[in-house]
């Protein structure tokens, strides 16, 4: 597992590795920002993740997920704040994301 000092460095390296799409969490799905494609939790796998903790500012806390779709061959990233700044997600999505964080 690679280690990165910043979210920007992680995103740049993941892009070089083919994770070119930007996904956003949309409560019970992830949605591709470029074309609007939506994936349910069972339709994608989290390949890797990187957690960044703000040393001086809690708003700098984030997790970068490298994800791939199971059937559509999509590769991209999700950047999500955690703690009080985290997105509202469904129970299924929370289980999917939390499971990977504990691995």
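-> sequence recovered:
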């Amino acid at each position: 597992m690679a280690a990165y000092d910043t979210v920007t460095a992680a995103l740049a390296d993941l892009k070089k590795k083919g994770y070119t799409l930007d996904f956003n969490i949309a409560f019970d799905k992830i949605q591709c920002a470029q074309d609007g494609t939506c994936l349910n939790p069972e339709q994608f796998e989290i390949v890797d993740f990187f957690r960044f903790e703000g040393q001086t500012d809690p708003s700098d806390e984030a997790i970068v997920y490298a994800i791939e779709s199971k059937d559509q061959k999509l590769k991209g990233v999700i950047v999500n704040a955690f703690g009080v700044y985290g997105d509202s997600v469904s129970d299924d999505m929370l289980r999917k994301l939390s499971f990977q964080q504990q691995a």
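The chain has one domain: 7-102.
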